[in-house]
From TrEMBL:
UniProt GO cellular component terms: AP-1 adaptor complex; clathrin-coated pit; perinuclear region of cytoplasm
Protein name (record): AP-1 complex subunit gamma
Localization per Swiss-Prot or TrEMBL: Cytoplasm, Perinuclear region; Cytoplasmic vesicle, Clathrin-coated vesicle membrane; Golgi apparatus; Membrane, Coated pit
Family classification: Belongs to the adaptor complexes large subunit family.
Keywords, comma-separated and alphabetical: Coated pit, Cytoplasm, Cytoplasmic vesicle, Golgi apparatus, Membrane, Protein transport, Transport
């Protein structure tokens, strides 16, 4: 058989292919030749054939038939064969295939080989694709190599140990003695991999974290030597000595200093030196400064040091690199709640970022701008944000409008300013505002009695000839119907009054009714407004009767029904019409933005405690409650009253049944189905509107409700100011594994003597490595002051598989229920 072509010739041939089909033909022909060579057990050219197969694998073609050939090359005594064999194993094999277990003995032999390069190959392969079984079998050899004096092997063994710990965390203590002398090594490669190993151990074990905190002074000394050392061509990158090692040390210091006063104190000085001595003209220096800022913000650092860190981020905002500006905005958004005044100093720079061409920077700048709004700067910030609303892309308008509404409601210096601001938003981006904007503005106008004439005049001017902004037209129609007499009388004292006749007002409302741009809801507002004007106007009642009668035969069922009812008022109940259509009284505000208001503050969503909004229909909650009671068969457990519709209503009942099982938390026998009830009482019915809950927990200790498989759930408690029977439980879910947990759902059930309400969670994804948490609020009504017990159900996806678990929580502190 002729000798197969070399790898270089194969690459050159494939590159000459003009079409995809021609390339596939060449690959198939070469694969056939390689298979023939493998069948003939050709040891001479096996290495060359596997190398070509790996190249074809990199191009995306199947190469699984070469897996066993890789094992044969690994077993060879020649270094060139071993090198290609191990490379093929790393590319073609993983722990899902049983073939990889055949390598264990070969790797063990090569770890004890007399040649360091063969040992290095074995360490690289084990650290790349070793399964948990292989790691358990070979951890002893890795630990021996970690203690060797050969720096080439020590750095590879340290990285291999990281992989072993990730696969088998219980083997972590085996490597503890070997880590003691790693930081004394002069070789930068060993130092770098040692810091990576220490970081992994600290992130996975609180005991290791406490043990390694004594190494903080040594790490500080290494970092100081790196900063103060002179030029070293071996480690220099753009004039900075080994920036990769500096970044790794800063990350480890961040973990060691978190929630520890002594460790934080020991690293304050070196962090200040790094922040002031690092060159910022190159991207390398910016990377180190960014890690320094993250470390300062994460540990218990001094206030002056935190201001220095925020000033560094402020300088980043002036950088020409878009990535650096985006990173700075994101970091400032995370720190704005803890260091608000320091971030405020960079307000003008942040506002300038609203004009950036990059949409990601614009969005971050918008979120940060809203977080910076307070009572002192609300006028200036709203002016900038309204200007941004005028010119921004459509995808920003909805979020920007919502943010302006929330900020104006919280910090408005006067009612007139508040009304003007919201009207400006409706005029600019009315079709993008949320559905609750119209009733909220109507409520604001109704409650501002002294502003009625001014408001109706402004709204009348706003909709003259322009009906494109439907929410604005709806508010204007409602106000004209309610305060049309003030508009016609010209009683406005806030600005120059306009002269408007009754017929001109009706012309506007009739134009809204016949406009093609008017939605069905808007026409309903306009028709109702016309009907209201029949009691406020004196000269145009006959015209109003005519308009109302015309729409009695409208093809719009909603509009037809309104018109028919209004016609009946004119004909049969005219004596009641003035009383029925009299001016609306001042409205009591029940809720601002739905049952749970989500306020964007520092980049994360926090549920603000508000009153529960009653359901729109009395029949629907009753039927839902009865369905739940039928489902539970009289079980002595109260159902959860959700604050928002679930994403899978069809399976909600089955999931609740799974959660509760046959559990009878009160111990009473299940005899008969529970009686039907008209409507489930809401948790907070009857409570006054403000304030609902203490801002600070009254000394109630927190508990860990669940800790398994890397998922940890903590409960913290608060008590109501006005009703001591209400306990607010905030859950915090964290994830210590190396992969995110997605589609996380938390469910809970309590005995029948309690009532429980779950608010919406802050997210459905729990970030890995404890880098973030999901928060969710539970409200529990316990009128009989009984000991609190709860059963929880957790579902989530992790590592590609669906996870589910049940647990009971019985260790609630007495202060939370007594």
């Amino acid at each position: 058989m002729p000798a197969p072509i070399r790898l270089r010739e194969l690459i050159r041939t494939i590159r000459t292919a003009r079409t995809q089909a021609e390339e596939r033909e060449m690959i198939q022909k070469e694969c056939a030749a390689i298979r023939s060579s493998f069948r003939e057990e050709d040891n001479t050219y096996r290495c060359r054939n596997v190398a070509k197969l790996l190249y074809m694998h990199m191009l995306g073609y199947p190469a699984h038939f070469g897996q066993l050939e890789c094992l044969k090359l690994i077993a060879s005594q020649k270094f060139t064969d071993k090198r290609i064999g191990y490379l093929g194993a790393m590319l073609l094999l993983d722990e899902r295939q049983d073939v990889h277990l055949l390598m264990t003995n070969c790797i063990k032999n090569d770890l004890n080989h007399s040649t360091q390069y063969v040992q290095g190959l074995a360490l690289c392969t084990l650290g790349c694709m070793g399964s948990s079984e292989m790691c358990r079998d070979l951890a002893g050899e890795v630990e021996k190599l970690l203690k060797t004096s050969n720096s080439y092997l020590r750095k590879k063994a340290a990285l291999c140990a990281v992989h072993v710990i990730r696969k088998v965390p219980e083997l972590m203590e085996m490597f503890l003695p070997a880590t003691k002398n790693l930081l004394n090594e002069k070789n930068h490669g060993v130092l770098h991999t040692s810091v990576v190993l220490l970081t992994e151990m600290c992130e996975r074990s609180p005991d290791m974290l406490a043990h390694f905190r004594k190494l903080v002074p040594q790490l500080v000394r290494i970092l100081k030597n790196l900063i103060m050392s002179g030029y070293s061509p071996e480690h220099d990158v753009s004039g900075i000595s080994d920036p990769f090692l500096q970044v790794r040390i800063l990350r480890l210091l961040r973990i060691l200093g978190r929630n520890d006063d002594d460790s934080s104190e020991a690293m304050n000085d070196i962090l200040a030196q790094v922040a002031t001595n690092t060159e910022t003209s190159k991207n390398v220096g910016n990377a180190i400064l960014y890690e320094t800022v993250l470390t300062i913000m994460d540990i218990k650092s001094e206030s002056g040091l935190r201001v220095l860190a925020i000033n560094i981020l402020g300088r980043f905002l002036l950088n020409n690199d878009k990535n650096i500006r985006y990173v700075a905005l994101t970091s400032l958004l995370k720190t704005v709640q803890t260091d608000h005044n320091a971030v405020q100093r960079h307000r003008s720079t942040i506002v300038d970022c609203l004009k950036d061409l990059d949409v990601s920077i614009k969005r971050r700048a918008m979120e940060l701008s809203f977080a910076l709004v307070n009572g002192n700067n609300v006028r200036g910030m709203m002016k900038e944000l309204l200007y941004f609303l005028d010119s921004c892309e459509p995808e920003f308008k909805a979020d920007c409008a919502s943010g302006i509404f929330l900020a104006a409601e919280k910090y408005a210096p006067s009612k007139r300013w508040h009304i003007d601001t919201i009207m400006r938003v409706l005029t600019t981006a009315g079709s993008y505002v949320r559905d609750d904007a119209v009733p909220n503005l109507i409520q604001l106008i109704t409650n501002s009695v002294e502003m009625h004439a001014y408001t109706v005049q402004r709204l009348y001017k706003a909709i003259l000839g322009d009906y494109s902004q439907q929410p604005l037209v709806q508010v204007a129609s409602w106000c004209i119907g309610e305060y049309g007499d003030l508009l016609v009388s010209g009683q406005c004292e806030e600005e120059e009054p306009i002269q408007v006749t009754e017929d001109e007002v009706l012309d506007i409302l009739e134009s809204v009714l016949i406009s093609n741009m008017s939605a069905s809801v808007t026409r309903g507002y306009a028709l109702t407004a016309i009907m209201k004007l029949s009691t406020r106007f004196t000269c145009t009642v006959n015209r109003i009767k005519k308009v109302v009668s015309i729409y009695g035969s409208s093809i719009d069922v909603e509009l037809q029904q309104r018109a028919v009812e209004y016609n009946a008022l004119f004909k049969k109940y005219d004596h009641m019409r003035p009383a029925l259509l009299e001016r609306m009284p001042v409205m009591e505000k029940v809720t601002t933005n739905g049952p749970a208001e989500i306020v964007q503050t520092n980049g994360e969503t926090e549920p603000a405690v508000l009153e529960t909004k009653p359901p729109p229909s009395g029949l629907q909650p009753a039927s839902q409650a009865n369905d739940l009671l039928d489902l539970l068969g009289g079980s002595d457990i109260t159902p959860v009253i959700p604050t928002a519709p679930t994403s899978k209503p069809a399976s909600a009942g089955g999931e609740l049944l799974d959660l509760l099982g046959d559990l009878n938390l009160t111990g009473s026998p299940v005899s008969a189905p529970a009686p039907q009830i008209a409507q489930p009482p809401f948790l907070l019915d009857g409570l006054p509107s403000q304030p609902l809950f203490n801002d600070i927990s009254a000394g109630i200790p927190s508990i860990t409700a669940y800790s398994k498989n890397g998922l940890k759930i903590d409960f913290t408690f608060e008590r109501s100011n006005t009703n001591p029977s209400v306990t607010v439980i905030t859950i915090q879910a964290s994830n210590s594994t190396e992969l995110d947990m997605t589609d996380f759902v938390f469910q809970a059930a309590v005995p029948k003597t309690f009532q429980l309400q779950l608010l919406s969670p802050s997210s459905s994804v729990i970030p890995a490595f404890n880098s973030g948490t999901i928060t969710q609020v539970i409200k529990v009504l316990n009128p009989q002051k009984q000991q609190l017990r709860m059963r929880i159900k957790l579902t989530y996806n992790h590592k590609g598989s669906a996870m589910q678990d049940l647990a009971e929580v019985n260790n609630f502190p007495p202060q939370s229920w007594q």
